[in-house]
Amino acid sequence: MGLTLAQKENSAVPCLITALQTAKDTAQNSDQFHTGFKKRKLMTKKTYTPNNSPLEADEQAKYFRWIRANQIKYPALRWIHASLAGIKLSPFLANKAKEQGNRKGICDICIPCARRGYHGAYLEMKRQSGGRLSSEQVEFMNHLEAEGYYKSVAKGAEHAIEITKFYLGIK
User: Fold this and answer.
1) Angle formed by the axes of helices 56-70 and 157-168, to 10°?
2) 22 or 43: which leads in pLDDT
3) How far apart are CA 63 and CA 67, in angstroms?
4) Cβ count within 10 A of residue 38
């Protein structure tokens, strides 16, 4: 005759507990798992560097939160967009983006509104402290100026907001 359900559960639990304890002990006492890979520390998201300045990506996200919060009051803000050229991609996706027209040096933010005698405006976002323009960015910004576009380098989100307000004539 077979075992009852209660007898099966009672006999399986100690075996499972023993197996789990053995696996835990092995993992704690060894630098390697059964797969042969060494243990790795988990990476945490770093948002500040030793100079304690927020990352460019964080500043740009803050800028676009302001854009979204104010676009009903100021309709011209609705069309401001980012190039996303600074996003780190895998080699496969980077190649695919390049094939579809992504280029080095393009400014981070485009304001497609004609104001102040310009065809539109481009902003290059940099950290509040540090951050330099690449040679491709300098070349692109020189091209923008020659073609009648307003261009500026913003040191952080607050500075980008000030530039945007100035360019669009927002108080």
Assistant:
1) 40
2) 22
3) 6
4) 9
Tokens of 41: 């520390």
Q: What is the pLDDT of residue 24?
A: 53
Q: Considering the chain, what percentage of its residues have pLDDT values greater than 70? A: 71
Closest by CA to 121, choosing from 168, 74, 162, is 168
CB atoms within 10 A of CB 137: 20
Neighbours of 124 (CB within 10 A): 24
Segments in 33-90 forming alpha helices (H)? 56-70
CA distance 41 to 30: 15
Q: Is the pTM of this model over 0.90?
A: no
Kind and range of the H or E run holding 109: strand 109-111
